[in-house]
Each structure stands twice: as C-alpha cells, then as structure tokens.
Write a structure and sequence with these properties.
This protein has about 600 residues and is an alpha+beta fold. The chain is about 20% helix and about 15% strand. The chain has 14 helices and 22 strands. Strands 1, 3, 11 and 12 form a 4-stranded antiparallel sheet that branches. Strands 2-8-7-4 form a 4-stranded mixed sheet. Strands 5-6 form a two-stranded antiparallel ribbon. A hairpin with a 2-residue loop joins strand 9 and strand 10. It is flat and about 85 Å long. The N terminus and C terminus are likely disordered.
Length: about 600
C-alpha cells in the first residue's frame, strides 16, 4: 500500500473547451481506466462536453497539483483517492513534517522521512458535476470544487464526504489553508482531493473496476463508485465532461529534485568533492556546522554524528508565535542548510516558493513578477454565487491569481469596512480587470480617499490616486504604496535606494540584499498595515550611515552627505507607465500543502 504523502497544487489556468474529441496520438485506456503511460502523455488540449446547466454550465479549469514523494514513484501510480496541494502547501508540509531533525526518530538513516526526495507537478483539468456546483443548495467550495476529502491509504476517511460522493459523483475537492503558526505565510494556499475507484476501501482490498469488491461503496442509484478520472475510447483519452465518473484528467509530471533545490549537491563532502545526494551529505558532509541538532527537552544545541538538513528549536517547533520562540535571537532558532532557514519569516518562505516555482518553470530571476503568468478569463462570478461584490464595502470579489482557485478577497479603503476582512486576503491589484468585473460599474469600489496609502485608488485603471505612476514618487507612505503597485523589482529598488539616500542619509552597501528586499515587496496584492517606516527598519542591515563633511565659514555651515550612486540607469520612475501596473501582472507562487 502506498504511504499517502502530501502534494502541492500551484497555479492554474482555465481554458474553454470545444466539442468533445479524443486527443490525437493518445493510446486508448484499458478497460474503464486510463493507462498510466497514456496519462503521462496527456496534453492540455483536452476537450469536454457541456450538459444541461444552461447559463451556469462550466468549462474545465486547469490547475497544477504538486506532491512531495519518492522520485522513483512519480508516474508509477494512478492519481486517485489521493490528496494534493498547491506549491506553498507542499513546501509547508516538507518544512514542518518531513525535514526537522527533532521530529524524526531514526538518526541512522539515509533518506528523508517517507523517502521523499522529489517534488512532482502535474497539470490537471477539473470539471466537477453540476450536481456539486449548481445553486441553490450546492456543496460547491471555491466556486469550482466540492468539499475537501481526506484520503489515507486510498480511503475517504470522512463519512460525510462518502455520502456526498454517493449523492453527487466523484468530485475534486479543495480546502483553503492558512493560519498554521508553525509556518509564516500571508497568501492563500490549498489542499486538493481527487476521488477514485471504491473510495471506502484501502489499497489492496478494492478489487478492480472490472471485478470490484462487494464492499465497494455505490452511488445512490446502486452503481459502484468508479472514480472521477476520465477514461478513453478508440481515439484516446478525453477531457473531463462533468459527468460523475469523469471530473478530472491529468498530464505528464515534471520533477524537481530536492537535493539540487536546497543546495545539498553544492555542499562539500570531503576533499572538495560535492555531495551526490542526501545519503552522501548525511554521512560525509565536511562542514562541522551541520553536525549539530537541538535537544528536544532542553533546547540546547548538541553535537551529532550525522549531518542534518534542518532543525528548529523546540520552542518554535509548534508555533512561531510562542513567547519562548520570540524571545530567542533569530540566529538561535534554526540549524542546517541556509535554504531552509527562516521558517517563521514570511519573506524567506516566499523566497523559497519562488525558487521552487522557478525550478519548475525554468524562468530567470527570483521575483513574483518574473514568474508572472497570464491568467485566463474563466469566470468566478455566477448568478447566486459568492463572487458578487458590493462596492461600498469592497467585497466579496474573487480572483484566480492564487493557484487558479476562485479565492474570495476584498479591496481596502472603501467607504464602509468589509466584514470578512480577518478571514480573506486583500485582492490582487488586477482583480477589476477580470471579465467578471471590468464591464460592470456596480462592481467598482467606492473609495474613501484618493490617497495611495489607503490602497483603494490603486485598483482603478488608470489610478484614481492623487499621485500618478508617471510621477517621481514621494518618499512617504503614499509613494511606498504606489511603488508596490507598480509590481516591478527595478522600480521598488529605485524607490528604496532613494529612501536610503534621502530619508535615512545612508549609502547602500549590500546591493543584492536591497534588491531581494525590493523583490519581497513586489507581490500581486497590497500589504495592509505595513508602513514605509517599517521597511526602513528592515533596510538597515543593507545600509551604512553616509560620512559627512562639514565646512564652516564665518557666516555659513554646510553639510554634505557622500553616498555611492546606485548602479541604475535612472532614479526616476517616469519610465513606468500606467499600463505597466495593470498589464501582465505577476502571479505569486502560491502553493498548497498536503496533510
């Protein structure tokens, strides 16, 4: 039986599909199931039919699902009766459940927990039954999905979800994650579930679709539950139709090796030889700093016979917000590879997510904007649905910017406060450019002010703020909010450099550090509650107080600040047009985690 290990789903795009057709070049599935080799070749030109939901009929949405697992097993199993996650969720699972040395009971080992050495990504097409999605009285979650179902060893462990499957079909589920105090992150990420054949029995006891166990659960009409993975016909595999037995299909996996991602293969394993893999690093790493771990009882650092990938102080293991954890200096909270340091730091976790996304997508750079993806116009707002905003309170809008899932969100700074602000993220800057809202005047937010620091005016295109993106931005909270909204690492670096010189009277001595800080401030959505003064404090390690030269005469005294000029073409932001803020906006590397 397979040990269930978490997956992660990242960004997704929706694509309208034409008439039902087989995929060219695909081998037929054997029986009613899709053969693994055929599924591995599945392309994302899948087709689907529409059936009987009138104006609410849905097209398939495209989602990337991720899983942390043994690389040798990628592609060897049909993905059904399983849980997956978005990219960030996958990282969170590895960071909190897999690699901390203090939670692994076997010091003499040559693999990570569960043998995990790979993160795999699959493209999925999802189209759930209208019985799940249609209003009223639907069980729809995040518009396109059903409720999340936990699977252990192939069994849907929640009996309520088993009843839902029997009544509505083999749907794909989702659950928004967040609020895990062990892992600092400020954007949504998700867990996903895919229902397969005979979901009430464990692997090895189900029988086969052709000869199922008599104990296999049945739909309400008495037919055995055969799962949502679409089969094929003489022409090959087919895309999801939304029928109860054809709700998802998936394509070829892409793999990232953890040893390469986290830097193990760049470490010295003696005599200048680079480590080959985790086992080699574990036994032979040459850096004595890695041969230390935390004592689970006392929290003291103790020597260790093996090299560790990562460990975290017991005061921080259960919560980054614990008073005992916060009392520790940051450099005393963690041990191990630099890649994993900063589990309690939102910026460091976002940086890791971007690096993982870049490893998959082979894109240059380390910013969310470099990882930008054109999101399609697949709607979130349907009649009687949840994504119909009231402009006076700034919500509820929905956006697919996080993992392709319709995520409820809100716009700050409206004339009345949004009541769900504590439970939902601030909307991405481009939410009003979605087809759902851009042609509907009723969806426009009613802003309480034209100040950029209040954020609301930054959502309009062009801005309705008192400053323009073509201005030289003032070095205050309004300018800082506007610089963020440009979503450009270069523009933010220029702005922070001017802050260093003119506000802090300092010279930049760590250019890369400042650029990294600038990248962390260029997300797809505003950050409410962070002021320029807060960022000035964070900037200080990258600066040096500029020397001054004072010349005194009988009548005047003049002070000159010497600061090295930044290596940039211009300090001005005039070259950033309004369109740059609203066209090809960046999509963050949001990623869900598995159990």
């Amino acid at each position: 039986a397979r040990h269930p290990v978490p997956h992660v789903g990242a960004r997704s795009r929706a694509r309208a599909c034409g008439p039902r057709r087989a995929l060219a070049g695909m081998a037929p599935a054997s029986g009613s199931r899709a053969a693994p080799a055929a599924k591995a070749a599945l392309l994302l030109q899948l087709a689907a039919t529409g059936s009987g939901a009138g104006a609410q009929e849905r097209s398939p949405i495209e989602v990337h699902f991720f899983r942390a697992m043994r690389g040798a097993e990628v592609g060897s199993h049909t993905i059904e009766n399983d849980n997956l996650a978005s990219l960030v969720g996958n990282l969170k699972y590895i960071h909190t459940e897999v690699i901390p040395e203090s939670i692994v009971s076997e010091p003499v080992r040559s693999t990570r927990k569960y043998g995990i050495d790979t993160v795999a990504r699959w493209p999925f097409l999802v189209r759930n039954p209208m019985a799940v999605l249609a209003q009223p009285n639907s069980i729809a979650t995040q518009v396109d999905f059903g409720p999340y179902t936990t699977f252990d060893h192939g069994v849907a462990t929640n009996l309520v979800q088993q009843d839902d499957i029997a009544a509505h079909g083999s749907y794909v589920g989702v659950q928004e994650q967040g609020g895990d105090s062990r892992f600092a992150f400020d954007e949504p990420y998700y867990w996903f579930s895919v229902t397969g054949f005979c979901p009430n029995l464990p692997w090895g006891e189900k029988g086969t679709p052709e000869s199922p166990s008599s104990a296999c659960m049945k739909y309400d009409d008495g037919e055995v539950v055969r799962g949502g993975l679409c089969g094929g016909d003489s022409g090959g595999l087919l895309g999801p139709t939304g029928a109860r037995g054809c709700t998802y299909a998936y394509g070829s996996p892409v793999k990232v090796l953890l040893d390469d991602l986290v830097g193990i293969t760049a470490e010295d394993c003696g005599g200048g030889r680079k480590c080959v893999d985790f086992a080699d690093f574990r036994r032979n790493c040459a850096n004595p700093a890695y041969k230390r771990k935390f004592d689970k009882s006392s929290g003291s650092t103790t020597s260790f016979s093996y090299c560790i990938e990562y460990d975290i102080h017991p005061a921080c293991q259960s919560s980054c917000e614990a008073a005992e954890c916060l009392a520790l200096p940051e450099e005393q909270r963690e041990l191990g590879l630099p890649f994993w340091r900063g589990r309690c730091d939102v910026r460091q976790n976002r940086k890791r997510a971007v690096l993982l996304a870049a490893a998959f997508d082979a894109l240059p750079g380390h910013s969310a904007r470099d990882l930008a993806m054109r999101w399609p116009e697949e709607p979130c707002a349907y009649p009687s649905g949840m994504c119909v905003p009231d402009g006076r309170i700034g919500g509820m809008y929905c956006s697919r910017q996080w993992s392709g899932v319709c995520q409820p969100c809100w716009i700050p700074g409206t004339v009345r406060p949004y009541p769900e602000r504590a439970d939902q993220p601030v909307c991405p800057y481009n939410v009003l450019s979605r087809e759902d809202y851009r042609f509907d005047p009723r969806s426009m937010p009613r802003c309480n002010s034209s100040r950029a620091r209040d954020l609301c005016c930054l959502y309009q295109s062009p801005w309705t703020c008192s400053i323009s993106p073509t201005d030289v931005l003032p070095l205050d909270d309004d300018g800082f909010a506007a610089a963020r909204a440009l979503q450009s690492v270069s523009a933010m670096t220029d702005f922070l450099w001017r802050v260093a010189e003119q506000n802090l009277h300092s010279a930049v001595v760590d250019v890369d550090g400042l650029k990294e800080l600038a990248a962390s401030e260029c997300g797809i959505a505003p950050k409410e509650g962070t002021s320029l003064q807060d960022i000035e404090v964070v900037m200080m390690p990258y600066l040096r107080r500029a020397p001054t030269e004072t010349t005194t005469t009988a009548t005047t005294a003049t002070t000159t600040i010497s600061a090295r000029a930044p290596p940039r073409s211009s300090l001005l932001l005039r070259t950033w047009s309004a369109s740059a803020a609203f066209v090809a906006l960046a999509a963050s590397a949001a990623m869900p985690s598995q159990r």
